[in-house]
Amino acid sequence: MPDYQQHEHDVLVIGAGGAGLRAAIEASAAGVSVGLVCKSLLGKAHTVMAEGGIAAALANVDDRDNWKVHFADTMRGGQYVNNWRMAELHAREAPDRVRELEAWGAMFDRTTDGRILQRNFGGHRYPRLAHVGDRTGLEMIRTLQDHGIHQGIDVHMECTIVTLLKDGDRVVGAFGYERERGRFKLFRARAVVLATGGVGRAYKITSNSWEYTGDGHTLAYDAGADLMDMEFVQFHPTGMIWPPSVCGILVTEGVRGEGGVLRNSQGRRFMFDDIPENYRAQTADNEDEGWRYTQGDKSARRPPELLTRDHVSRCIVREIKEGRGSPHGGVFLDISWIKARLPNAAEVIRKKLPSMYHQFKQLADIDITREPMEVGPTTHYIMGGVRVNADTQMSTVPGLFAAGECAAGINGANRLGGNSLSDLLVFGKRAGEFAAQFAKSEKAGTNGDIDVQQIDAAAQRALEPFERGPQGEAPYQVQYALQEMMQNLVGIVRNEPEMTRALECLARLRERAARAGVGGNREYNPGWHAALDLHNLLTVSEAIARSAIDRRESRGGHFRDDCPEKDAACASFNIITRKGRDGSMEVDRVSIPPMPEELKKVIEEMK
Amino acid sequence: MPQTATFRIWRGDVHGGQFQDYAAELSDGMVVLDAVHQIQATQANDLAVRWNCKAGKCGSCSAEINGSPRLMCMTRLNQLDLSQPVTVEPMRSFPPIRDLVTDVSWNFKAKKSVAKFRPRKPDAADGTWRMAQVDVERVQEFRKCIECFLCQDVCHVLREHRMFDQFVGPRHLVYAAALEMHPLDTASRARDLKHEHGVGFCNITKCCTKVCPEGIGITDNALIPLKERVIDQLYDPVAKLFRVLRGGSHAV
After folding, report:
1. Residues of A with CB below 8 A from B122's CB?
2. B170: domain range?
């Protein structure tokens, strides 16, 4: 029998970024006991990296904005395969969630009359992103953290969950290890909220840190929950590409929101060359109009650099493939050109984009107030995730909830910038609220018996890498091989033969992962952690590949050069992956329920 | 730049340890964290290191590089003398866990001891508040803090004198300053700052300011104004006279 520490909570929240913290705060406010598990230290989660802002139709800068416009923008950006109910709730509730942050101490940049300032972002019709320079994510996580630590939440830092525990159909707890000593921990819980973020580490070029290995996706999948929309991965158009050590680090869309432009090696603003039909009416057709938009001219339309991320990424890939790329294989992103328009341009840039200025200066020896940056697409976000009920965020497994990036639905085929931070707040709150409600109801488990066999098996699996020892397969090498393979075969541009090959590679990688071994002991051993994360990376990679093969069209973040067009027939369903009875992955399709007339009308009006 | 360099990395745990040399291959633009990762992936899978964002935004990879407290992800190799081994060791003010990882949990407890934000009632017609950008900016400087705890590591009150139970350190004084100067906040922290948080122990040597990767003016903009605030509120002779006359006798 393995040795483990035991903890008992009504609601266990796994993940302590924006969604997890918000869920924990809400559950705690509902009067239940709450445990919060962080894979790293508190306040270090990936939310901290979010730069641009929180999308919410506060209408502080442009009074034409309201929830309906935000809803229509989100659906258009997601190419209409979003869960429309989630998109509606998100648009309606985001403003209150932002004002609540202010009441908890957040300090957003201000309008001249002292209200929360909002900025332009891709795909948003009006300036909508509440922000703090280009470090909005830090402000948000710190506000939630500083508020949350006084709410009586038990925080378990540097702890990783390896499996959920079930009693029949219901989730009744979780089992994992803490990094410091490598000891096992058993959590008994009446409801569990997954808020573990994304899967970026499945790819070689990514803006995500080591933590983003699809843990929540895999925990849910292994517990029998449905995953949805896994083919939709967002490749952010502007990641750093040079020097190699910083490749993939994010360059905020805020650069383009503040007037930054994309050029190829010939100096051409290539984004004007390809404006999709459904965005033509709201996109500027000349450079002057685009500039005026970024400076707040309400009569101007937005520049093509602020089209949706999927489209901008593909245009960049086209320029590079056709030989018009920058010296290190990207394109140029230039904010320094605004000195032609503004007398104090350098000061404005440093003020509006301080961390970008800092990041390029320190890591790439580039002064962005004087010269252009070189950028290229980087794996940033996954729209797909755990399939949840729109209102309650409960998955298809009773007692198991999911919120934030690891849940699916709100973003459809492509997420708009700024909609992630608001998603974390809106659905983090809802997940916390309904998880607490579930924990109080008779539907929840009794917090009592957990089948010892489940625990033994999980502990046994977790310790296998030590039994194989350092002569086993090196975990980091398996991870690198997987990342390289996914980047090449299931990346920005996909096709069936390559993805079929990817599935074969995944089967071989799974065999290698089963032989992974590590040396040393259990105390803070990153090699061991990397070995345990492989199962998650392999599971989400397979779900991405299988879903992407099944969607025989191009839509949003999913682009296939063997079916390059959007197919109207494919707008009627979402793709589901789940664990079949024999343990292999099943692919299924579910039709999207018809949208109520009221919402249809909103979309019509906003066209 | 040479093709390889030697990294002298501290390996050990709470019982002790020693430096061990590793060679790493160099490439353009490399930072110390890249070298540590390379060594971890190819030579020492169990080399313990904390990191997250690798872009100077999360404050996880704090260490002492050639003796200076710095973020490993923001320390470029071309700023270092690579003809000598580059020493990388954990922050020495905190108890070691393993290799480059230290036990920073004291910081999370210290933070909790600072009275939380308490806003005044919303006073704008729409049920929110109005704040001027200029007032917000003063506090935004402090809110840039990424909680890397390098200022705590270098502060001699903690590092040399080990006064962890009497002094919360520069990080949490900056946190208190952000709350005290928040235009909406109504809580008073002067008494706590003096008695619980030990603001008086800071003798403004500015070591914290020097190592802050966010360039926060810790000493000039946070610590000194806090000291002034404590003096204004607790040592004002006129106020003291009033207190005596009114019969109040609580000590400062």
Report:
1. 103
2. 105-241
